[in-house]
Amino acid sequence: MIAGNNRPAVSGAILTGGRSTRMGRDKAFVAIDGVYMVVRLATALGDGGVDPVIAIGGDRPRISAAGIASIADDWPGEGPLGGIITAMRFCRTPWVFVVACDLAMLSAPTVLRLGDAAVHRSDDVDAHDVVVAQTDRLEPLCAVWRRTEAVIATLADAFEAGERSVHGGLSRLRVKRLAVEASELSNFNAPQDLR
Questions:
Q1: In what order do the strands lie in the sheet with 130-134?
Q2: Is 57 contained in some domain?
Q3: What is the per-residue pLDDT for 27?
Q4: Residues in the chain with pLDDT < 50?
Q5: Which alpha helices (DSSP H) does 48-107 contain, by range?
Q6: pTM, whole model, 2 decimals?
């Protein structure tokens, strides 16, 4: 957590277990301006007051060699909703910031804004279960999740019922949207996206 910031703790999870079929190689280790995407995100999360930061799934030995803690995805190959549930079950902070590894332009100030929006206390302290970044559309793979038994159970129930879409999981929760610059949520899914 940033020194002097007394907000409830927010931990972070980077989803690194995707198949990267469109990119043709592991997206976590595609370099943007000479820095691997997973490292860029770990740095942005840490500089934005998120601690600790872990990676979920993917090439764990290589991730560890890059200086990032990692754990196995409980449902490898089953999509990002399983990775989110894995992160929520593993982390112990009141809030968990989960981001896909291909959103490599996310900045520390935006991480801080999302974290603050999640933990901000209002008259109704439980007014939302998740704060999701939004440009012209909702980006559920850049969100801060309230880590409670109820939220975890809701997501797990959806997953066990066959839901694999993060949007489908969100539809069962109270969502707060936070506007983010579109450039910060640029996806790097294919080689042409790197140009």
A1: 69-71, 53-56, 10-15, 95-100, 138-146, 130-134, 175-179
A2: yes
A3: 81
A4: 1-4, 23, 191
A5: 60-65, 80-90
A6: 0.89
